[in-house]
Amino acid sequence: MENQFPEEKFSTQYRNIPVSFVRSILNAIGQQKMISFAGGLPNPSLFPVGELAESTRAVMAAHGGTVLQYAGSMGYYPLREWIANRYSAKYGMSITPEMVLITNGSQQAIDVISKLFINPGDGVILEKPSYLGAIQAMSAYLPDFREVDLEEDGANLAQIEELFLDEDIKLMYAVTNAQNPSGISYSAEKRKDLAMLLRKYNQFLLEDDPYNEICFDGEFPAPVKKFAPDHVAWTGSFSKMVAPGLRNGWVVLPPALVPHFDKVKQATDLHPNNLTQYVLHHYLVHNDLDEHLQRIRTKYAGMAECMVEMLKRYLPDEVHITQPTGGMFIWLTLPEGLRADELIHRTMERGVIFVPGNSFYTKGQGSNHIRLNFTNAEPDDIQKGVAIMAEEMKKLLCAV
Ligand SMILES: Cc1ncc(COP(=O)(O)O)c(C=O)c1O
Protein backbone atom coordinates (compact mmCIF):
# COMPACT_ATOMS: atom_id res chain seq x y z
CA MET A 1 0.00 0.00 0.00
CA GLU A 2 1.29 3.47 -0.84
CA ASN A 3 1.74 6.00 1.90
CA GLN A 4 2.74 3.46 4.52
CA PHE A 5 4.70 4.77 7.47
CA PRO A 6 8.29 3.42 7.40
CA GLU A 7 8.28 0.34 9.67
CA GLU A 8 11.88 0.84 10.79
CA LYS A 9 10.85 3.98 12.67
CA PHE A 10 8.75 1.89 15.05
CA SER A 11 10.04 0.61 18.39
CA THR A 12 10.69 -3.05 19.11
CA GLN A 13 8.13 -2.74 21.91
CA TYR A 14 5.45 -1.59 19.49
CA ARG A 15 6.29 -4.28 16.98
CA ASN A 16 5.90 -6.93 19.66
CA ILE A 17 2.20 -6.11 20.21
CA PRO A 18 0.04 -8.78 18.53
CA VAL A 19 -2.77 -7.67 16.24
CA SER A 20 -6.30 -7.96 17.61
CA PHE A 21 -8.16 -10.46 15.47
CA VAL A 22 -11.50 -8.83 16.25
CA ARG A 23 -10.30 -5.35 15.25
CA SER A 24 -8.68 -6.54 12.04
CA ILE A 25 -11.66 -8.62 11.01
CA LEU A 26 -14.08 -5.81 11.77
CA ASN A 27 -11.93 -3.44 9.71
CA ALA A 28 -11.82 -5.97 6.87
CA ILE A 29 -15.57 -6.48 6.68
CA GLY A 30 -16.31 -2.75 6.99
CA GLN A 31 -20.00 -1.95 6.97
CA GLN A 32 -21.11 -5.39 5.79
CA LYS A 33 -23.93 -6.77 7.95
CA MET A 34 -22.70 -9.79 9.87
CA ILE A 35 -24.02 -12.01 12.62
CA SER A 36 -21.25 -11.37 15.10
CA PHE A 37 -20.38 -13.59 18.04
CA ALA A 38 -16.92 -12.04 17.88
CA GLY A 39 -17.03 -8.84 19.92
CA GLY A 40 -16.97 -8.52 23.68
CA LEU A 41 -19.45 -5.71 24.07
CA PRO A 42 -21.98 -5.38 26.89
CA ASN A 43 -25.57 -5.13 25.66
CA PRO A 44 -26.36 -1.41 25.14
CA SER A 45 -30.05 -1.89 25.98
CA LEU A 46 -28.87 -2.26 29.59
CA PHE A 47 -26.95 1.02 29.80
CA PRO A 48 -28.69 3.34 32.31
CA VAL A 49 -28.87 6.17 29.79
CA GLY A 50 -31.60 8.24 31.46
CA GLU A 51 -30.04 7.94 34.90
CA LEU A 52 -26.57 8.90 33.62
CA ALA A 53 -28.06 11.88 31.76
CA GLU A 54 -29.69 13.02 35.00
CA SER A 55 -26.44 12.52 36.95
CA THR A 56 -24.49 14.47 34.31
CA ARG A 57 -26.94 17.35 34.54
CA ALA A 58 -26.81 17.35 38.36
CA VAL A 59 -23.00 17.16 38.48
CA MET A 60 -22.53 19.95 35.95
CA ALA A 61 -24.99 22.16 37.82
CA ALA A 62 -23.36 21.56 41.20
CA HIS A 63 -19.65 21.16 40.30
CA GLY A 64 -19.18 22.45 36.72
CA GLY A 65 -15.97 24.38 37.44
CA THR A 66 -14.43 21.53 39.42
CA VAL A 67 -15.22 18.62 37.13
CA LEU A 68 -13.90 20.42 34.07
CA GLN A 69 -10.61 21.25 35.81
CA TYR A 70 -7.46 19.09 36.10
CA ALA A 71 -7.72 16.78 39.09
CA GLY A 72 -5.80 14.41 41.39
CA SER A 73 -4.05 11.46 39.77
CA MET A 74 -5.42 8.79 42.13
CA GLY A 75 -9.04 9.53 41.33
CA TYR A 76 -12.13 11.12 42.89
CA TYR A 77 -11.99 10.29 46.60
CA PRO A 78 -15.72 9.64 47.15
CA LEU A 79 -15.67 7.14 44.25
CA ARG A 80 -12.61 5.41 45.74
CA GLU A 81 -14.44 5.34 49.07
CA TRP A 82 -17.55 3.83 47.46
CA ILE A 83 -15.46 1.04 45.89
CA ALA A 84 -13.56 0.39 49.15
CA ASN A 85 -16.80 0.15 51.14
CA ARG A 86 -18.65 -2.08 48.66
CA TYR A 87 -15.91 -4.69 48.33
CA SER A 88 -14.85 -4.60 51.99
CA ALA A 89 -18.47 -5.41 52.88
CA LYS A 90 -18.97 -7.95 50.07
CA TYR A 91 -15.95 -10.08 50.99
CA GLY A 92 -15.14 -9.13 54.58
CA MET A 93 -11.92 -7.42 53.46
CA SER A 94 -10.19 -4.34 54.90
CA ILE A 95 -9.92 -2.13 51.85
CA THR A 96 -9.36 1.59 52.48
CA PRO A 97 -9.96 4.30 49.85
CA GLU A 98 -6.20 4.99 49.91
CA MET A 99 -5.59 1.51 48.44
CA VAL A 100 -8.01 2.13 45.55
CA LEU A 101 -6.84 4.03 42.45
CA ILE A 102 -9.16 4.91 39.60
CA THR A 103 -7.94 3.94 36.13
CA ASN A 104 -9.08 4.46 32.55
CA GLY A 105 -10.84 1.10 32.51
CA SER A 106 -9.18 -1.95 34.03
CA GLN A 107 -7.21 -2.16 30.78
CA GLN A 108 -5.10 0.78 31.95
CA ALA A 109 -4.32 -0.96 35.24
CA ILE A 110 -2.88 -3.87 33.22
CA ASP A 111 -0.69 -1.47 31.26
CA VAL A 112 0.50 0.47 34.32
CA ILE A 113 1.35 -2.69 36.28
CA SER A 114 3.22 -4.02 33.25
CA LYS A 115 5.19 -0.78 32.88
CA LEU A 116 6.01 -0.91 36.58
CA PHE A 117 7.12 -4.57 36.74
CA ILE A 118 8.31 -5.93 33.41
CA ASN A 119 11.84 -5.64 32.02
CA PRO A 120 12.52 -7.19 28.61
CA GLY A 121 12.84 -10.96 29.04
CA ASP A 122 11.17 -11.13 32.48
CA GLY A 123 8.97 -14.14 33.06
CA VAL A 124 5.22 -13.44 33.17
CA ILE A 125 2.82 -16.28 33.91
CA LEU A 126 -0.38 -16.38 31.89
CA GLU A 127 -3.33 -18.73 31.92
CA LYS A 128 -3.67 -20.76 28.74
CA PRO A 129 -5.86 -19.29 27.18
CA SER A 130 -5.63 -15.70 28.40
CA TYR A 131 -7.33 -12.34 27.77
CA LEU A 132 -6.09 -10.89 24.47
CA GLY A 133 -6.10 -7.29 25.76
CA ALA A 134 -3.66 -8.28 28.52
CA ILE A 135 -1.42 -10.16 26.09
CA GLN A 136 -1.36 -7.01 23.94
CA ALA A 137 -0.75 -4.60 26.83
CA MET A 138 2.00 -6.72 28.36
CA SER A 139 3.69 -7.57 25.05
CA ALA A 140 4.80 -3.94 24.71
CA TYR A 141 7.18 -4.53 27.65
CA LEU A 142 8.80 -7.56 25.95
CA PRO A 143 8.11 -10.24 28.60
CA ASP A 144 8.87 -13.91 28.28
CA PHE A 145 5.36 -15.35 28.63
CA ARG A 146 5.10 -18.70 30.45
CA GLU A 147 1.71 -20.34 30.07
CA VAL A 148 -0.01 -22.65 32.56
CA ASP A 149 -3.02 -24.86 31.85
CA LEU A 150 -6.40 -23.50 32.77
CA GLU A 151 -8.49 -26.30 34.29
CA GLU A 152 -12.23 -26.36 35.06
CA ASP A 153 -11.56 -24.83 38.52
CA GLY A 154 -8.73 -22.44 37.65
CA ALA A 155 -5.06 -22.52 36.67
CA ASN A 156 -2.90 -25.59 37.30
CA LEU A 157 -1.21 -24.96 40.65
CA ALA A 158 1.58 -27.52 40.23
CA GLN A 159 2.70 -25.79 37.04
CA ILE A 160 2.51 -22.39 38.77
CA GLU A 161 4.59 -23.63 41.71
CA GLU A 162 7.24 -24.97 39.37
CA LEU A 163 7.44 -21.58 37.65
CA PHE A 164 7.48 -19.67 40.95
CA LEU A 165 10.67 -21.56 41.80
CA ASP A 166 12.21 -19.92 38.73
CA GLU A 167 13.60 -16.64 39.97
CA ASP A 168 13.06 -14.59 36.81
CA ILE A 169 9.26 -14.69 37.21
CA LYS A 170 8.06 -11.14 37.87
CA LEU A 171 4.33 -11.42 37.65
CA MET A 172 1.37 -13.68 37.16
CA TYR A 173 -1.77 -12.46 35.38
CA ALA A 174 -5.11 -14.19 35.94
CA VAL A 175 -8.83 -13.53 35.42
CA THR A 176 -10.37 -15.41 38.32
CA ASN A 177 -14.09 -14.89 37.54
CA ALA A 178 -15.87 -15.83 34.29
CA GLN A 179 -12.59 -15.59 32.43
CA ASN A 180 -12.37 -14.01 29.01
CA PRO A 181 -12.22 -16.11 26.81
CA SER A 182 -12.95 -19.46 28.53
CA GLY A 183 -15.74 -18.49 30.97
CA ILE A 184 -13.90 -20.44 33.71
CA SER A 185 -14.03 -19.26 37.36
CA TYR A 186 -11.57 -20.35 40.04
CA SER A 187 -12.95 -22.53 42.83
CA ALA A 188 -12.83 -21.13 46.37
CA GLU A 189 -10.10 -23.67 47.26
CA LYS A 190 -7.90 -22.79 44.29
CA ARG A 191 -8.04 -19.11 45.19
CA LYS A 192 -6.79 -19.89 48.69
CA ASP A 193 -4.13 -22.29 47.42
CA LEU A 194 -2.88 -19.78 44.85
CA ALA A 195 -2.71 -17.12 47.60
CA MET A 196 -0.66 -19.54 49.70
CA LEU A 197 1.80 -20.05 46.82
CA LEU A 198 2.10 -16.30 46.26
CA ARG A 199 3.00 -15.81 49.93
CA LYS A 200 5.30 -18.82 50.08
CA TYR A 201 7.36 -17.79 47.04
CA ASN A 202 6.93 -14.03 47.49
CA GLN A 203 5.41 -13.70 44.01
CA PHE A 204 2.96 -11.12 42.68
CA LEU A 205 -0.42 -11.58 40.98
CA LEU A 206 -2.40 -9.18 38.84
CA GLU A 207 -5.94 -10.43 39.49
CA ASP A 208 -8.11 -8.93 36.75
CA ASP A 209 -11.76 -9.05 37.74
CA PRO A 210 -14.07 -7.09 35.41
CA TYR A 211 -16.81 -9.76 35.57
CA ASN A 212 -17.00 -9.89 39.38
CA GLU A 213 -20.61 -8.67 39.47
CA ILE A 214 -21.81 -10.68 36.45
CA CYS A 215 -22.41 -14.01 38.18
CA PHE A 216 -25.62 -15.74 37.06
CA ASP A 217 -26.30 -17.65 40.25
CA GLY A 218 -25.38 -16.02 43.57
CA GLU A 219 -21.89 -14.53 43.94
CA PHE A 220 -18.40 -15.63 42.93
CA PRO A 221 -16.14 -16.66 45.84
CA ALA A 222 -13.82 -14.10 47.47
CA PRO A 223 -10.84 -13.02 45.33
CA VAL A 224 -7.28 -14.28 45.74
CA LYS A 225 -6.54 -10.72 46.95
CA LYS A 226 -8.38 -11.47 50.19
CA PHE A 227 -5.95 -14.26 51.12
CA ALA A 228 -2.69 -12.61 49.99
CA PRO A 229 -3.36 -8.86 50.22
CA ASP A 230 0.29 -7.81 49.90
CA HIS A 231 0.91 -10.04 46.88
CA VAL A 232 -2.03 -9.09 44.67
CA ALA A 233 -3.15 -6.07 42.63
CA TRP A 234 -6.90 -6.59 42.14
CA THR A 235 -8.61 -4.71 39.32
CA GLY A 236 -12.29 -3.99 38.84
CA SER A 237 -14.33 -2.17 36.25
CA PHE A 238 -17.58 -0.29 35.76
CA SER A 239 -17.56 -1.29 32.08
CA LYS A 240 -19.75 -4.36 32.50
CA MET A 241 -21.66 -3.05 35.55
CA VAL A 242 -22.64 0.35 34.16
CA ALA A 243 -21.16 1.33 30.76
CA PRO A 244 -17.72 0.88 29.13
CA GLY A 245 -17.74 4.27 27.40
CA LEU A 246 -17.28 5.95 30.79
CA ARG A 247 -13.82 4.30 30.93
CA ASN A 248 -13.90 3.95 34.68
CA GLY A 249 -12.06 1.08 36.30
CA TRP A 250 -9.97 0.70 39.42
CA VAL A 251 -7.21 -1.23 41.08
CA VAL A 252 -6.89 -2.23 44.75
CA LEU A 253 -3.18 -2.22 45.58
CA PRO A 254 -0.98 -3.21 48.52
CA PRO A 255 -0.35 0.15 50.27
CA ALA A 256 3.41 -0.01 49.56
CA LEU A 257 2.72 -0.14 45.81
CA VAL A 258 0.39 2.88 45.70
CA PRO A 259 2.99 5.67 45.24
CA HIS A 260 4.79 3.68 42.54
CA PHE A 261 1.62 2.88 40.61
CA ASP A 262 0.58 6.51 40.96
CA LYS A 263 3.91 7.77 39.57
CA VAL A 264 3.52 5.61 36.44
CA LYS A 265 -0.12 6.58 36.11
CA GLN A 266 0.71 10.31 36.31
CA ALA A 267 3.31 9.90 33.59
CA THR A 268 0.76 8.08 31.45
CA ASP A 269 -2.32 10.33 31.54
CA LEU A 270 -2.04 12.82 34.45
CA HIS A 271 -5.35 11.70 35.97
CA PRO A 272 -8.56 9.82 35.21
CA ASN A 273 -11.49 11.53 33.48
CA ASN A 274 -12.87 13.83 36.16
CA LEU A 275 -16.34 14.35 34.73
CA THR A 276 -17.19 10.66 34.32
CA GLN A 277 -15.94 9.88 37.85
CA TYR A 278 -18.30 12.46 39.36
CA VAL A 279 -21.18 11.35 37.11
CA LEU A 280 -20.62 7.71 37.98
CA HIS A 281 -20.42 8.43 41.70
CA HIS A 282 -23.63 10.47 41.55
CA TYR A 283 -25.30 7.61 39.66
CA LEU A 284 -24.12 5.03 42.20
CA VAL A 285 -25.37 6.90 45.25
CA HIS A 286 -28.72 7.96 43.76
CA ASN A 287 -29.76 4.67 42.13
CA ASP A 288 -30.17 1.05 43.15
CA LEU A 289 -27.09 -0.57 41.59
CA ASP A 290 -27.99 -4.05 42.84
CA GLU A 291 -31.35 -3.91 41.11
CA HIS A 292 -29.60 -2.79 37.91
CA LEU A 293 -27.04 -5.61 38.21
CA GLN A 294 -29.83 -8.12 38.69
CA ARG A 295 -31.37 -7.00 35.37
CA ILE A 296 -28.01 -7.51 33.63
CA ARG A 297 -27.53 -10.96 35.19
CA THR A 298 -31.04 -12.10 34.29
CA LYS A 299 -30.75 -10.90 30.69
CA TYR A 300 -27.27 -12.35 30.13
CA ALA A 301 -28.16 -15.66 31.79
CA GLY A 302 -31.13 -15.94 29.39
CA MET A 303 -28.98 -15.10 26.37
CA ALA A 304 -26.32 -17.61 27.43
CA GLU A 305 -28.96 -20.30 27.87
CA CYS A 306 -30.39 -19.57 24.43
CA MET A 307 -26.95 -19.84 22.80
CA VAL A 308 -26.02 -23.03 24.65
CA GLU A 309 -29.34 -24.60 23.62
CA MET A 310 -28.73 -23.73 19.95
CA LEU A 311 -25.14 -24.98 20.11
CA LYS A 312 -26.29 -28.29 21.59
CA ARG A 313 -29.03 -28.60 19.01
CA TYR A 314 -26.92 -27.86 15.92
CA LEU A 315 -23.21 -28.51 16.50
CA PRO A 316 -21.66 -31.95 15.97
CA ASP A 317 -21.70 -33.99 19.21
CA GLU A 318 -17.90 -34.03 19.34
CA VAL A 319 -17.72 -30.27 19.99
CA HIS A 320 -17.30 -29.49 23.70
CA ILE A 321 -19.36 -26.53 24.90
CA THR A 322 -18.74 -24.71 28.22
CA GLN A 323 -21.79 -23.80 30.28
CA PRO A 324 -21.21 -20.18 31.36
CA THR A 325 -21.84 -19.29 35.01
CA GLY A 326 -21.35 -15.57 34.37
CA GLY A 327 -19.53 -13.10 32.15
CA MET A 328 -20.09 -12.82 28.42
CA PHE A 329 -18.47 -15.80 26.66
CA ILE A 330 -18.86 -19.45 25.68
CA TRP A 331 -15.75 -21.47 24.83
CA LEU A 332 -15.87 -24.31 22.32
CA THR A 333 -13.35 -27.11 21.95
CA LEU A 334 -13.36 -28.65 18.49
CA PRO A 335 -12.65 -32.30 17.69
CA GLU A 336 -9.47 -33.51 16.00
CA GLY A 337 -9.28 -32.30 12.40
CA LEU A 338 -11.35 -29.14 12.83
CA ARG A 339 -9.50 -25.83 12.86
CA ALA A 340 -11.20 -22.61 13.93
CA ASP A 341 -9.07 -20.49 11.57
CA GLU A 342 -10.23 -22.59 8.59
CA LEU A 343 -13.81 -22.53 9.78
CA ILE A 344 -13.98 -18.75 10.10
CA HIS A 345 -13.08 -18.20 6.45
CA ARG A 346 -16.07 -20.31 5.48
CA THR A 347 -18.54 -18.80 7.96
CA MET A 348 -17.43 -15.25 7.13
CA GLU A 349 -18.43 -15.88 3.51
CA ARG A 350 -21.88 -16.67 4.88
CA GLY A 351 -22.03 -13.65 7.21
CA VAL A 352 -21.08 -15.17 10.58
CA ILE A 353 -18.02 -14.28 12.66
CA PHE A 354 -16.51 -15.45 15.94
CA VAL A 355 -13.01 -15.35 17.42
CA PRO A 356 -10.74 -18.35 16.69
CA GLY A 357 -9.01 -19.55 19.85
CA ASN A 358 -5.43 -18.88 18.77
CA SER A 359 -5.93 -15.16 19.53
CA PHE A 360 -5.81 -16.06 23.23
CA TYR A 361 -2.50 -17.92 23.26
CA THR A 362 1.03 -16.56 22.93
CA LYS A 363 2.70 -19.51 21.23
CA GLY A 364 0.40 -20.18 18.31
CA GLN A 365 -1.76 -22.84 19.98
CA GLY A 366 -5.55 -22.83 20.35
CA SER A 367 -6.68 -23.40 16.77
CA ASN A 368 -9.08 -26.07 18.09
CA HIS A 369 -10.99 -23.48 20.15
CA ILE A 370 -13.60 -20.81 19.48
CA ARG A 371 -14.77 -17.92 21.66
CA LEU A 372 -18.41 -16.94 21.26
CA ASN A 373 -19.93 -13.79 22.75
CA PHE A 374 -23.57 -14.20 23.79
CA THR A 375 -24.48 -10.71 25.03
CA ASN A 376 -25.12 -9.01 21.74
CA ALA A 377 -27.08 -11.25 19.40
CA GLU A 378 -30.85 -11.63 19.13
CA PRO A 379 -32.27 -15.18 19.40
CA ASP A 380 -33.08 -15.36 15.66
CA ASP A 381 -29.52 -14.41 14.77
CA ILE A 382 -28.12 -16.86 17.31
CA GLN A 383 -30.12 -19.67 15.70
CA LYS A 384 -29.15 -18.64 12.16
CA GLY A 385 -25.47 -18.06 13.03
CA VAL A 386 -25.05 -21.30 14.98
CA ALA A 387 -26.78 -23.30 12.22
CA ILE A 388 -24.33 -21.87 9.64
CA MET A 389 -21.35 -22.64 11.89
CA ALA A 390 -22.64 -26.19 12.33
CA GLU A 391 -23.10 -26.76 8.57
CA GLU A 392 -19.58 -25.56 7.84
CA MET A 393 -18.13 -27.66 10.67
CA LYS A 394 -19.83 -30.76 9.30
CA LYS A 395 -18.49 -30.09 5.79
CA LEU A 396 -14.96 -29.72 7.18
CA LEU A 397 -15.34 -32.89 9.26
CA CYS A 398 -16.47 -34.84 6.18
CA ALA A 399 -13.36 -33.64 4.36
CA VAL A 400 -11.03 -34.97 7.10
C1 LIG B 1 -10.56 -9.84 31.29
C2 LIG B 1 -10.69 -8.42 30.90
N1 LIG B 1 -9.91 -7.51 31.49
C3 LIG B 1 -9.99 -6.21 31.18
C4 LIG B 1 -10.89 -5.75 30.24
C5 LIG B 1 -10.92 -4.29 29.93
O1 LIG B 1 -12.05 -3.70 30.46
P1 LIG B 1 -12.18 -2.16 30.76
O2 LIG B 1 -13.31 -1.68 29.93
O3 LIG B 1 -12.45 -2.06 32.22
O4 LIG B 1 -10.90 -1.50 30.40
C6 LIG B 1 -11.73 -6.66 29.59
C7 LIG B 1 -12.67 -6.20 28.56
O5 LIG B 1 -13.35 -6.90 27.90
C8 LIG B 1 -11.63 -8.02 29.93
O6 LIG B 1 -12.40 -8.96 29.35
Supply the number of helical segments: 14
In quaternary terms, these chains amount to single chain
Quote the beta fraction.
5-15%
Structural class of the helix and strand makeup? Answer: alpha/beta
Extended strand count: 14
Main beta sheet: strand number and arrangement? 8 strands, mixed
Read across the widest sheet, the strand sequence of neighbours is 2-9-8-7-6-3-4-5
- Give the overall form: globular
What number of structural domains do the residues give?
2
Give the distinct bound molecules: pyridoxal-5'-phosphate
Under the CATH scheme, the architecture of the largest domain is 3-Layer(aba) Sandwich
Cα end-to-end separation: 37 Å
**Unreliable stretches covering 5 or more consecutive residues:** none
Task: Give the name of the CATH superfamily of the largest domain.
Answer: Type I PLP-dependent aspartate aminotransferase-like (Major domain)
Order of helices and strands: HHEHHEHEHEEHEHEHEEHHHEEHEEEH
Mean pLDDT: 94
Give the proportion of residues in helices: 40-55%
Q: Which CATH top level class of the largest domain fits?
A: Alpha Beta
What is the third-level CATH name, the topology of the largest domain? Aspartate Aminotransferase, domain 2
